[in-house]
Amino acid sequence: MKRSILAVAFASASMLANAAVLDLSTFVVSGSGTTSSLLASITGTTTLAGNVTGLTSFSWKFTTPDYIPFNDYSFFTTSSGTTNLSSVGDLGNVVGGVSSTGWKTFTFANAYTGQLIFGVKDVQDAQLPSELQIAVAPVPEPETYALMGVGLVGLLAARRRKAN
């Protein structure tokens, strides 16, 4: 029984040691923006580029004070091509206000490894710059999961012992 508990703990730790961690502070901003390890914000006509390994998802929010015909938009690019996230046209024509998508999550069909570029494009003007925010959830340390796994196995063993 003790061996199986240790085996589960080590297997959990080794699997989770390979969990993807996206550190946005390592990304390069070309234009106007700020980055920290878990949150980045870019405005105007700006890109944010970096490399990722095994990324499965990210959260994003597009906010704009602009209106049609100034169809600002946000996007990301991978080795497979460019994906549009949102635009002024998607949010509707708001004059004198601010539109936002709210926080959304993009999930890759398969874990992505390679260069990832986020961008926001200010179309035809610079007076009302749009903003794209990118956020990543912190990934717990593998030891945390291993400890949780050992605890769960211990609870199951105690329950089994009590049933007998």
Keywords:
164 residues, alpha+beta, Jelly Rolls, 7 strands, 26% helix, Ice-binding_C, signal, PEP-CTERM sorting domain-containing protein
Topology:
Blueprint: H1 2-17, E1 28-35, E2 39-64, E3 73-78, E4 81-87, H2 88-91, E5 99-100, E6 104-121, E7 131-135, H3 142-163
Antiparallel strand pairs: 1-2, 2-5, 2-6, 2-7, 3-4, 3-6
Helix pairs in contact: 1-3
Describe the protein.
Helix 1 runs antiparallel to helix 3 (142-163). The two termini are 15 Å apart. The chain has three helices and seven strands; from the N terminus they run αββββαβββα. The chain is of the alpha+beta class and 164 residues long. Strands 1, 2, 3, 4, 5, 6 and 7 form a seven-stranded antiparallel sheet that branches. The radius of gyration is 22 Å and the shape is elongated. The protein has helices spanning 2-17, 88-91, 142-163, and strands at residues 28-35, 39-64, 73-78, 81-87, 99-100, 104-121, 131-135. Strand 1 (28-35) and strand 2 (39-64) form a beta hairpin. The chain folds into two domains: 1-19 and 140-164, no CATH class; 20-138, Sandwich (Jelly Rolls).
In angstroms, what is the radius of gyration?
22 Å
Average pLDDT, all residues: 83
Largest sheet properties: 7 strands, antiparallel
Describe the global form: elongated
Provide the domain count: 2
**In the CATH scheme, what's the topology name of the largest domain?**
Jelly Rolls
Summarize the structure.
The chain contains three helices and seven strands, in the order αββββαβββα.
